[in-house]
Amino acid sequence: MTGLRERKKWETRRRISDVATGMFLARGFDDVTIAEVAEAAGVSRMTVFNYFPRKEDLFLDRSAETVVDFRQAISERGLGEPVAEALRRLHLGWLAERHPMSGVVEHGKAFWKVVDETPALRARTLEQQDELRAELVDMLRAEGFDETGATLGAGFVAAAHGTVYDTARLRIMAGDKVTKVHAGQKAVVERVFDALADALRGLESH
User: What is the dihedral of CA 94, 28, 15, 173, to 10 degrees?
Assistant: First the structure.
């Protein structure tokens, strides 16, 4: 029952965000109100705020889901499997399904244009990056990394994730076709996570 309730909550959250994202892309972030999002999504303003305390998170909605995916990949990896390999598999899975966090998405150019043009969204993006690093420190501590190793390792993991995402984003923004970016992105993931594996190797045993 708990699993069903949680799934329904995530489905409601996603529906609200999808409606809001469509409105923001069509009209601009600043020109859409929470009341309009609530009406279009068929929920109350309070329901929107319960799921998204900040308007920016309606558009930058994948942060919480990303933390869950990272935590699951790390905590549920096979016995003896390095953290970097679990995260490589996560990113390759995202790429295969063209998950938004892979950076390889059809609507990406329009999405990133709204972010670039909206100071509040740019600021929130930086905050979410800091929040992810803080969550990663906790995840690595739970896996036996000492304080220094967890902090350093979290920085390495966040940098790897950002590099993979930004490589795709910058190519698409520069005009490369999404299909072309997708075709070359697996090599990017492999190279980045090879480097991450080397960086974390000396930290996991301490």
Answer: -10
Domains plus CATH for the chain?
Answer: 1-59 (1.10.10.60), 62-204 (1.10.357)
Give Cβ neighbours of residue 20 (< 8 Å, ≥ 6 apart).
Answer: 32, 37, 41, 58, 59, 61
pTM: 0.90
For tokens 């994948």, what's the residue?
A: 62
Residue 204 neighbours by CB under 8 Å, 6+ apart: 82, 83, 143, 144, 145, 149, 153
Tokens representing residue 91 in the block: 């990113």
- Structural tokens at position 160: 């790897």
* Residue of 118, 104, 106, 98 lying closest to 24 (CA atoms): 118
User: Residue holding tokens 């509040």?
Assistant: 120
Query: How is residue 78 annotated by DSSP?
Result: P
Task: Give the pLDDT confidence of 59-108 residue by residue, as tens digits.
Answer: 999 988 899 999 999 999 999 999 999 999 999 999 999 999 999 998 88
